[in-house]
Amino acid sequence: MNIFYDAPEVFIHPQFVDFRKSINGLVGIVEAELARDAYTGTLFVFCNKAKDKLKILYWDKTGFALWYKRLEKQKFKWPTKLSSQEFELTSQQLSWLLSGYDVLGHEPLHYQSMI
InterPro entries recorded for this chain (predicted)? Predict the structure, then answer.
């Protein structure tokens, strides 16, 4: 089930988040650390350190909504090797993340010569 098919943008916060934080704490991260406007309908995805829980925060024009998913036996393929404070996902990549796939794929290689 993909309930986020119509999201304008999707950003993940690559650092792990203390999941005792709820809506107000996550909005604080969006505004302070990501320097983004939380009131746009953009989805903001957060993961816990154990990588078995995700929270998705978004504004739905009447208030904030917080979606929560907990895996019972597996781990999310959370992209931890990012140099930036945030990373934008497509709707397809979000669907892959929620389904257990690696959203970053292979790291690009850069060669200067074959010899």
Answer: Transposase_IS66_Orf2 (IPR008878)
- Could you tell me the residue ranges of all domains in the chain? 10-99
Q: What is the DSSP string of 9-75?
A: -EEE--S---TT--HHHHHHHHHHTS---TTSS-EEEEE-TTSSEEEEEEE-SSSEEEEEEE-SS--
37-84 pLDDT tens trace: 999 999 999 999 999 999 999 998 899 999 999 999 989 888 776 666
Is residue 41 within 8 Å of 7, Cβ to Cβ?
yes
- Quote the pTM value: 0.84
